[in-house]
# Entry
Amino acid sequence: MLLSKLLLPTLKDAPQEAEVISHKLMLRSGMIRKVASGIYTWLPLGLKVLKKVENIVREEMNASGAQEVFMPMVQPKELWEETSRWEKMGPELLRIKDRHERDFCLGPTHEEVITDIIRNNVKSYKELPLNIYQIQTKFRDEVRPRYGIMRGREFLMKDSYSFNIDEDSLQETYLNMRDTYKRVLERIGLEYKISAADSGAIGGDSSEEFHVLAENGEDTIAVSDSSEFAINTELLLKEGEDINSLEGKPSPDGNGTIQVKKGIEVGHIFKLGKLYAESMKANVLNAEGKASTLYMGCYGIGVSRLVAAAIEQNFDESGITWPHSIAPFDINIISIGFEKDQEISAASVKLYDELTNMGYDVLLDDRKGGYGAKMKDSELIGIPLNIVIGKKFLENKEIELKSRNGQSSSNPITDIKTILEFFKDK
Ligand code: ATP
Ligand code: MG
# Structure
């Protein structure tokens, strides 16, 4: 991609409305722009990151054996009445009418739609277990949309729903999803905790949340300093504890001491049991030939929220320091004098083609302008690896290699192996 052709409206300063670092940097780096409260357009650079997160989620979901579908965003009132959630969801559910005055809502989640599909199309326990997922836009009319896409009203979620014949099978799918979410967060490269959680408006028997640890997290979680024990303090409050006296106490699992941390909830997995299947009469025939109510689980991961969470864990005073896995580009070729020096432009394009053909996602900064301004932009948008072709190239065919973490070296341009060797592990 030529930077001169890219819609990349970077800003020197963040607009006043942005409170947290991820929101500020997403606006400054030209990733998103606000359309209305909690509703954003993803510009090309932002969309590249979003798609990389989405791709990791999709690959891991497919590897887990789940199957992808695509459900509608607009859902009829009748389905939501079957579970009483038309009433229960309150004003968070955005209700709309069609031209015939029929009631619909914009889907905040899809338990009703998927359960309707399964009850109409799956007849026997032999067809189970099933784990069905989608990656789709959700709408929740949040009381307080804030922090940009971190708490939007419209956002992208991967939601999946499992259908199981009994509790044991549900437990197996649940643990499979738990491992899958771990793999997603590890592939992206984020520090996280899995905590026991309150099941909220989704309900069900029990649930766990995946929290990316960050100062700007909206959740407060109690974690052990020497084991995996973690619990959302929301749940403790519900159980009547006072959360301020937690800190420094022995962990309830007998390992280590409790520390109170801030976390961003990026994923939530639920054992629903028969909650939805019972009210929607979703049965299959069991091994004895009798109608048996399905067990369900549901598993959500905030694809768009993950982008903000990744920034909250990866930034410095110059901008974003993306984990390489989701950086918008792998390499930025910073070409100084591209527009006026044929030798420089030819060498830049040659290197661009070579690296692109090797499978790298490459940006070529072919704009007018000097080293300082271009490097500043590259650091702001967080490209992990930079190749500078400029004056030194004209003098003695040398290029500068510079990684986002500050390491640099000079190399003769012919040596692509040395370039890649330098870039390894950076
Ligand atoms: P929260 O407690 O943050 O409001 P939730 O518990 O209501 O979230 P779930 O129903 O568990 O959310 O949704 C699954 C995932 O979708 C969440 O873990 C989160 O990553 C993401 N998500 C939920 N609400 C939003 C939102 N308003 N903006 C962006 N992502 C969201
Ligand atoms: Mg949740």
